[in-house]
Amino acid sequence: MPTITVEGKGSFDVPAGKRLVNALVEECGTDQLHACGGVARCTTCRVEFVAGEPARMTQAEKDVLAAKGVTTPGVRLSCQITCEADMTVRLVSRFEGSGRKDAGTPCGASIEPPPQWV
Q1: Please, are residues 91 and 32 in contact by the beta-carbon 8 Å criterion?
Q2: pTM (predicted TM-score)
Q3: CA angle at residue 86 from 40 to 107, to 5 degrees?
Q4: How many CA atoms within 13 Å lie on the side-chain side of 106?
């Protein structure tokens, strides 16, 4: 089981292969935003990697980060990442203080759209 460490929150064991966005909410108990339901459209599920950033990225993640002008190194979309190894993240987009009515539509178990790895 990979361990996800969330700065300011703690470390949590999560099932291997689970989407990071779901692990952050379900295992780590965070209020991570995911307004588009985890389909790589909105960037509200952004996290910043402190350690353990996955080397591969989906084409959808690459495209939406570029389209939204997100260029900060280590900032990634948690909806496009599966938990395969230990990682440490800083939450960038949280429900608290967002002004939104909820954190977003629930995200499915599999990466959407179907991943094309780059």
Answers
A1: yes
A2: 0.96
A3: 30
A4: 3
Angle, alpha carbons 48-40-62 (nearest 5°): 65
Q: Find the Cα–Cα–Cα–Cα dihedral 108, 34, 69, 73, rounded to 10°.
A: -80
Pairing state between β 10-13 and 46-51: unpaired
Give the pLDDT score at 87: 98
Q: What is the pLDDT of residues 19-34, one digit of tens each?
A: 999 999 999 999 999 9
SS3 of residue 87 by DSSP: strand
Q: Positive or negative, the Cα torsion across 57, 23, 72, 112?
A: positive
Q: Is residue 58 domain-resident?
A: yes
Q: Would you give the end-to-end CA distance of the chain in angstroms?
A: 25
Q: Is residue 63 part of a domain?
A: yes
Please, are residues 102 and 44 in contact by the beta-carbon 8 Å criterion?
no
Which CATH number is 85's domain given? 3.10.20.30
The structural domain count of the chain equals 1
